[in-house]
Amino acid sequence: MSDTAPAVAVPSTAQKLTAELLGTFILVFGVIGAAIFAAPTAGLLAVAVALGLSVVVGVYAFGPISGGHFNPAVTLGLAVAGRFAWKDVLGYLAAQVVGGILGSVVLLGILSTGPMFDIAIFRGASTGYDELSPGGFGLGSFLIAEIVATAVFLFVILGVTSAGRAASNLAPLAIGLTLTVLVLVAGPVSNGSFNPARSIATAIFGGELALTQLWASIVAPIAGALLAGVIYKAVFDRPAKLTA
Prior knowledge:
This protein is an all-alpha fold.
C-alpha cells in the first residue's frame, strides 16, 4: 500500500473566474431584485436579508473554487493583506464586473414585460449621495458610511478565514450576517453597496446622475477595503512572539 496522499484537484483559472462571475451574478440578482420587487412593500430589511443570504449562498457554492470574493473591494483588500495573489487581481475584477452587469441585464429583462415598466427604477436601486441617498445624505456622510462599512466587512472576512481562528464552514454565515447588519446601518445613507461591481451594475441603467456619482461608489469601498487590509496585516498577521 502506498502512503502517498491522494492528489487534490486545483481549480483552473477559467474555473475560478467563472465562479466569481456566477457568484457576483447571484449577489446582484438577489439584492437588486429584492430592492426592485420586495423593498416597496417589505422595506430595507428585505434588501439587507437578500444581500446577506445571496452572499451566504454564493460563498458556500463557489467559495471552494475561487475563494468567494464577488466584490472588487474584497479582492483588493485581500491582496493588500497578503491573502490573495496580485497576479490574479485583474481577472477577478473583470469577472465580478461582468457578473454584476449580467445580473442587472436579467432583471431588466424581467421588468421589460411587466406592468408599468420604467427603467428609472434602477436609479432608485443605485448607490449615491444627495438625490440618490434614500435619506438625503450628502457626499461626506456617504463616504464615511461606505468606507467604514467596507472596512468592517473586510475585518470580518479576514478574521473568520484566518487559519486556526475559526471554523471555516461557518465563515459564510458570519460574512453574510455582517453584510445584513451593515446594510441596515448604511442603507438609508448610501443604499448600502460596499461593492463596486454591484454599484456599476445598477448605475449603467440608472441614468446620468447614477453614472455621475459612480466614482464615489467605486472609490469609497476600495479605500475601506485597502485600509482594513493594511491594518489587519500589520496588527493581527504579525508573527507570534515566543515566550520562555
